[in-house]
Write a structure and sequence with these properties.
Blueprint: H1 3-15, H2 28-31, E1 38-42, E2 57-61, E3 69-74, E4 77-82, H3 83-90, E5 106-107, E6 137-146, E7 158-163, E8 167-172, H4 184-200, H5 209-219, E9 225-226, E10 228-234, E11 237-243, E12 247-252, E13 255-259, E14 264-266, E15 269-270, E16 273-274, E17 286-290, E18 297-301, H6 303-306, H7 311-323, H8 328-343, H9 351-358, E19 361-364, E20 371-380
Parallel strand pairs: 5-17
Antiparallel strand pairs: 1-19, 2-3, 3-4, 6-20, 7-8, 8-10, 9-16, 10-11, 11-17, 12-13, 12-18, 14-15, 18-20
Helix pairs in contact: 1-3, 4-5, 7-8
GO molecular function, one term: metal ion binding
Pfam family, one: PP2C_2
Catalytic activity: O-phospho-L-threonyl-[protein] + H2O = L-threonyl-[protein] + phosphate; O-phospho-L-seryl-[protein] + H2O = L-seryl-[protein] + phosphate
Length: 384
């Protein structure tokens, strides 16, 4: 099936969809001011959306991306994606991206990398890499967490874990709960703690992250809500599960190997877990399987990272850091520092400002937020 047909079918399905359940969150228009960028005024009214909350769907060949590279723009997000991934995510049973049930599983071939705003990169093959066929690899990880400047005293609302050189996780608590007198970060911290407990109950070489997320969700009973992203090294590569606008990127030899897409109901209104069944559920999460090799780098982050840095920004820091022999902790600090710098820049384009403009707002600059960055080097056992 050609990418063009895939896009048309995806558009037809999405425009028939219905919006998902909600939880206490600020409305999109109310959430824009005070984010570090400049909001002037809506460029056009938002009342023209269809029932699914979409403003429009477009697609076409990516500039410089070759015959198989296409971009797809949907709702308020501009998401470059190769044609293979478009078909897998949006045609081959995949229905989510913003409103419906997520595809049960998405597999990335080693050559399926995301098209970027940077110049065309060399293709990534497998001839010079040995894919993971057993537990001969480990994750050497480091983290940097920068709370929103206004939330430093309370510790912010993000949470994370690093477990046994095999798994990492991040969560972003929804700040809207603070207006109810609820610590918006406690839910995120609890769901990450419960995820670790669930991982420890799994067979070490075959962790089922769908089951892990379901257990973590059912065990988290404090009021609140959050996104969740968990990544584990298995005997098939890495398995990842993601719900919401946190996510991860895998980098190999200076190229983006894959990037998890954002799950959102509408602009600035992401999927999120909440106690009970009143919001999005774990079965709405997207599951990924990605073959990895020693030398690959995984960067996971909350939206404070991905709202402020493009893929090529993150990749550039990783390339510089690995060439300089920096450990993942320092690499995470450098990425987080750059994300904070961009978040405070009111004049530089960011992924968030691009999405805001696509949604009809004249918004410029970054989005000030909690920033969590976990960097994992895929490393062979015996190497530090």
């Amino acid at each position: 099936m050609s990418p063009a047909i895939a896009l048309r079918r995806a558009a037809a399905w999405l425009l028939r969809g219905a919006a998902g359940a909600g939880a206490p969150r600020a409305a999109s228009s109310a959430a824009l001011p005070g984010m570090g960028g400049a909001l002037l005024s809506p460029a056009r009214g938002l009342q023209g959306r269809d029932a699914a909350g979409f403003l429009g769907i477009w697609g076409g060949p990516a500039a410089g991306g070759g015959g198989g590279s296409w971009w797809f723009r949907c709702a308020a997000s501009s998401v470059p994606r190769p044609g293979l991934l478009v078909e897998q995510l949006l045609v081959g049973g995949g229905r989510s991206f913003a409103t419906g049930a997520a595809p049960e599983e998405v597999s990335f071939s080693p050559a399926a990398r995301e098209a970027d705003v940077s110049p065309p990169e060399k293709s990534v093959g497998t001839s010079d890499k040995t894919m993971l066929g057993d537990r001969s690899l480990k994750l050497v990880s480091g983290v940097c967490y920068l709370p929103h400047p206004d939330k430093e005293e309370t510790g912010g609302e993000d949470a994370h874990f690093i477990w046994d050189e095999q798994a990492i996780g991040i969560a972003d608590g929804v700040g809207g709960w603070a207006s109810y007198g609820i610590d918006a970060g406690q839910y995120a911290r609890d769901i990450m703690s419960n995820a670790v407990t669930a991982i420890e109950e799994e067979p070490k070489d075959s962790i089922d992250l769908t089951r892990v997320l379901e257990k973590a969700h059912s065990s988290t009973t404090v009021p609140g809500s959050s996104t969740a992203c968990i990544i584990a090294l298995t005997n098939q590569g890495i398995q990842a599960i993601n719900l919401g606008d946190s996510g991860f990127i895998v980098i190999r030899d200076g190229c983006t190997l894959c990037r998890s897409p954002v799950q959102q109901h509408d602009f600035n209104f992401s999927y999120q877990l909440q106690s009970g069944n009143s919001s999005d559920l774990p079965n709405a999460a997207q599951v990924f399987k990605v073959p990895v090799a020693s030398g690959d780098v995984i960067v996971a982050g909350t939206d404070g990272l991905f709202d402020n840095l493009y893929n090529n920004d993150i990749t550039a820091v990783v390339v510089h850091a690995t060439r300089a022999g920096l450990d993942p902790q320092v690499t995470a600090q450098k990425i987080a520092a750059l994300a904070r710098q961009r978040a405070q820049d009111k004049n530089r384009p960011t992924p968030f400002s691009t999405a805001a403009q696509d949604a009809g707002y004249r918004y410029y600059g970054g989005k000030l937020d909690d920033i969590t960055v976990v960097v994992s080097y895929v490393t062979a056992f015996g190497n530090s």
